[in-house]
Amino acid sequence: ARYYGCGLVRPDLLLGMRVLDLGSGSGRDCYLLSQLVGEQGYVLGVDMTEEQLAVADRHLEWHRQKFGFAKSNVEFRKGYIEHLDQLGLEENSFDIIVSNCVINLSPDKEAVLREAYRLLKPGGELYFSDVYADRRVPAELVKDKVLYGECLSGALYWNDFLNLAKRAGFPDPRLVEDRPLAIENQQILARIGHIAFFSATYRLFKLDGLESHCEDYGQAVVYRGGIAHAEHRFQLDKHHLLEKGRIFPVCGNSYRMLHESRFNPYFDFFGNTDTHYGIFEGCGSTLPFDKTVQQPASGGCC
Fold this sequence. Notes:
Structural class: alpha/beta
Strand content: 25-35%
Helix content: 10-25%
Distance between the termini: 15 Å
CATH topology of the largest domain: Rossmann fold
Largest sheet: 9 strands, mixed
Number of strands: 14
CATH class of the largest domain: Alpha Beta
Radius of gyration: 20 Å
CATH architecture of the largest domain: 3-Layer(aba) Sandwich
Number of domains: 2
C-alpha cells in the first residue's frame, strides 16, 4: 500500500479515548492509535479515497487478533474532511481529533476546523501535523499540480491559519514542534522563489472562553508525573516543557488547557483569575517557526 504522511501524530494520554483521524488513508495511523487507546477506546478513520479505504478495511481482523481485542475498536468511513456533517457523527463525541499532513490538501480548511470543533468534546483537542508557509502562496502556485503533490501549494500562511482557527472556535492554537522543509528539487525551488515552508504540529483545545492572548493571573502548575513516555517532563507545547515536581508559572489559557482536559489528574494547580497582572511575558505574535535547525526535514511532508 502507498503511504502518505509525516510519521505518527500521537498526543499523550490516549488510553480509553475516542479518536477521529482526518484523512486516514490506508489506516496505518488508525491501527497504531487503536493499540494506544486500548480495547475500551475507539478510532474512526475518514478518507475520501476508495483504494485507501479498501486497504484499511482488509486489515481490521488481523489487527484485532494481533492486539488481543475481543472486537475491533477501529472503523473506517468514506467522506470528505470538510463535510464531516454528512457522516452522521454526533456533536461533542470525540476526545481527540488527529490529522497527518492532510488538511493542507483540503479546498476549505476553515470548514475542516469548524467541523472538528463541533465534534470535539469540551476539553478535547485537535492535534495535527501539516505544512505551513512564511507568506501567502500566490494563486498561480496554488493551482500548480506538482506543488500540490508535494503538499506545498495548499500550505497556509501561518498567520492566516491562526486566524482561521480562531474563527472556528480555537482562540489559542499551540505550536508543539516545527522544522523547516529543505526543498532540494531545483525545479520546485525555481517555482516557489523565496517562500519558506515548515512542517509543524499544532494542538487546538476546545475550551469556551479562552482568551486571544496569554494573560497573566499569577497562576502556576506542578506536573506530578505519571504520564507514559513523559514521566519526568511533559510538553504542553513548544514553550511549555514542564518538569516533574517543579512549580511552573503559566498564563490563564495554559492553566485551563491542563485543568479542564484529560491532563488534570497529573497536575497540581495554584491560583485563580481574581487578579490580572497584564500580558504574560514573552507572548508574541511574530513568525512562530524556527528557520534554522541542525537537521531540517528534507522534501515535502506527504
